[in-house]
Amino acid sequence: MFPAASTPRRAMPPARKAAGTDRTGPTAQPSGAAEGAAAPAPKTGGRNPFFDNAKYLAIVLVAMGHAWEPLTDGSRAAEAFYMTVYTFHMPAFIIISGYFSRSFDMRKDRLQRLVTGVAVPYVLFETAYAFFKRWADDDPGHPISLLDPWFLTWFLVALFIWRLTTPLWQVVRWPIPLAVAIAVLASVSPDIGDDLDLQRVLQFLPFFVLGLMLRPEHFKLVQRRAVRIASLPIFAAALVMAYWAAPRMSSAWFYHRDSAQELGTTWWVGAVMTPALFGCSIVLVACFFAWVPTRQTWFTVLGAGTLYGYLLHGFLAKGSRFWGWFDDYAWLHTPLGEIAVTLLAGGIVTALCTPPVRRVFRFAMEPTMAWAFRKDPADTARARVSA
Length: 387
Hints:
The protein is mainly alpha-helical. Helices cover 59% and strands 0% of the residues. The longest helix is centred in the first third of the chain and has 29 residues, at 108-136. Residues 49-353 form the Acyltransferase domain. Residues 1-44 are annotated as: Disordered. It comes from Streptomyces nigrescens.
C-alpha cells in the first residue's frame, strides 16, 4: 500500500537529465536510461509500460464516466458505477503526474516544457471549447475567459500550478498532511470562487503531493499477488457502498469543485468528508494499480496519447448533451443501451489516443515554439564550439 500520510519525506534522488523526464499532464512519461532505476517494471522503447497502461485505462474510465453521467438520474446501478469510478480515476492520473514531477525545478528547459505542454494547450482548448459551446449549445454570448476553466481544462490549470509548487513540497517536513490540511480548508471556504477552478486545484492537491513522495518500490508493493486478490472484494464493497449511497449522497462530492456549504451542508461535514474521500480514493487507486499490466500490451502505445484523448473527447461528451442524444433515444437508458454507451465511449477515446490523431493535433498539444523563448548564451557558445 502507499506510505502513510504522516511518514516523513525521504531524500529526493538527484535530478535526472533525460530529455523527457519532466513532460507534463496525462502524457507525462520518463525517457532515456536515467529513468531505469525508477521503473517498477521493465521498460520498452525508453518508456515504462506500466505507466502507459495505467494512463490508458484511466482515460478510458474518464470517458466512460462522462458517458454514464446522463444515465445516472434513472439508474441507481449506473450511479453506483459512476461514483465508484469517480473516486479513483482522476486521482490515479494526478498521482502519476506527481510521480513524474519529482525532478521538476525552475530550470529553463523544464519551464519551457511546462509552457508548451500545459499552458499553451490550456489557452487553445479553453478558447476552442468556448467557441464550440457557442455553436453547439446555441449560446452566442458564452464568454471566452481564461480565468474560468470550462469542463476538462481545469486539469491543465491545476497541473501548471502544482508543478510550479513542486520545489516547496520537496523542502517541507510533512508534505502530505500539509496538503490534506490545505484541501480541508478549501472545502470549508465558499469564498474561494471559481477563478482558475481553485477549489479543484486545492482539493485535489494531496494526490499530486502523494505522487511526488512515491518511489518505485511503492508501485511494486501494490502489484503483489496478495494485493491483487484483496482488491476484488474491496472493489465489490465499494460498489455496494456506492449503491447504498447513490440516493443519499450527491456525486458532486467527487468532483471536488465546491465547498461543503455550496453543496448544501455545514462546514464541519466538509472537514470530515475531504480526508475521508482522500482515504477512499487512495485505497481504490491502489486496487486499480494492482491490476494494471506491467508488460507491453496492445494498448501500451496509447498511453502516450492520453492527453489527446482527454481533451478531444470533451467535444463529443458535451455535444451529446447539447444535441439531446440521451433524451431523443430512450433505449440508451435500458441495460443494453447503457452497455452500448459504455463500449462506444471506450472505443472513441481509444481512437483519439492513437498515433495518427496525435500527429494531427501535435501542434496544439506539444508545440515546440522555439521562436517564443530566448536562447541561452551558454547553449549558443557550446554550439559554436562543437561546430
